[in-house]
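Study the following:
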Amino acid sequence: MSQGKRPLPADIHPRTQAVHSGTRRSQYGEVSEAIFLTQGFVYDSAEQAEARFIETGDDEFIYARYGNPTVRMFEDRIAALEGTEDAFATASGMAAVNGALTALLKAGDHVVSAKALFGSCLYILEEILTRYGVEVTFVDGTDLDQWRAAIRPDTKAVFFESMSNPTLEVIDIRAVSDLAHAVGALVIVDNVFATPVLQRSGDLGADVIVYSATKHIDGQGRCLGGVICGTRQFVRKVAEPYLKHTGGSLSPFNAWVMLKALETMDLRVRAQADSALKVAQALQGLPGLSRVIHPFLTDHPQHDLARAQMDAGGTMIALDVAGGKEAAFKLLNALQIIVISNNLGDAKSIITHPATTTHQRLTPEQRAGLGISDGLLRLSIGLEDAGDLIADLTQALAAAQGPGS
């Protein structure tokens, strides 16, 4: 395949990279990236087939589970945005988390992880890795003394969400990375809430960055996808062999959707983050809310750290509704614009009740330990007018605190 243009300048803005990086054009010179919907590829000779199975070049492919031109464009583009050497696209965000951890670890290895994680991430660490003999130590991710005490000379990796789901704790990436690197441990960061637009975790010390592309990267609720970003050695020698043989690769169609979505991600995420801060500020102090959580609000425990690490506070807000589950459900059911769903990072504003959805498999004691109260709601701000969202939440909050509450 032909690139169809001169090489891009090395110092272009990420917004420009999101439009042009990784482009592969066929002989037809198409403007929009092509979708290569094919499982396999034809060889000119038996000798060529033999050579390709020994080593494939940048524009050589064997089988869609191993790689595909459309998927490769997405991988190259997201790696350019993240500032890493390479990337491997996966079927979902959880395939990326599982792939990054399972490809690296074996029985007897030790992992230190923040305990405030998405429910499925907790399942991988608590249930799957330990089942196969990996030792996992959980810590309060915001407490550097706990990281320091838990990381051992034989620790293989540390794992955390740069901003936790759903309570929005912010982890000091550079400090934790320094502690891990001092013993030769790899730092794996789930950066889905911060996005590559607002934070490049690799610049702060992370070795491997994983995303659910289902969220802000797609941004419009269409397709599942995930990606692992890191060094070429980790992506191609550690992650790829595991993923291509176990079937966790991204479909070409979904890769094409993600490619087109990357073109507008910077604009979308920045607009959503701007609205999220306006909504959070407007809701602070309203009757019926015990707490409004957003990293750029001054009462957030990691406010200064968030401002140091991120360009903006992200698109997520957590609301702790006074009156517990009953009041939270009344608020949800009174909303007129914001939709109830367990996705996030969408053009539509989405809200969910973590205790009964994303984190329902945890015991009440575990949820309490993570700060997930019965009244907690996770709110993902979309592209609607911020004033309309504030009005919707205000009227729903009033309905939740009305007669009979």
The longest helix spans residues 252-283. The domain at 266-400 is CATH 3.90.1150.10 (Aspartate Aminotransferase, domain 1).
